[in-house]
Amino acid sequence: MMFGIDQDDEYLHTVLPVAAPGVVTFEGQQYIFALNAHQLDGIRCARLNWV
Fold first, then answer.
1. What is the 3-state composition of the chain as percent helix, strand, coil, each rounded to the nearest 5?
2. Which residues pair with residue 33 across a beta bridge?
3. Model pTM?
4. In the chain, where are the structural domains located?
5. Predicted local confidence at residue 1, as pLDDT
6. Sign (positive/negative) of CA torsion 4, 7, 13, 17?
7. How far apart are CA 34 and CA 36, in angstroms?
8. N or C: which end of the chain has fewer CB atoms below 10 A?
């Protein structure tokens, strides 16, 4: 989790195609919440795993 000033591309692994993401910890597990793509008519949720 080291981020350099003016060196972001060096540490970039991927881009998540989500709108307005939020990360929540619940009972020791982390989840990402984001608006549904294109229609923005709801929210989707997925469990996160850090490897």
1. 10, 40, 55
2. 22, 45
3. 0.64
4. 18-51
5. 57
6. positive
7. 6
8. C
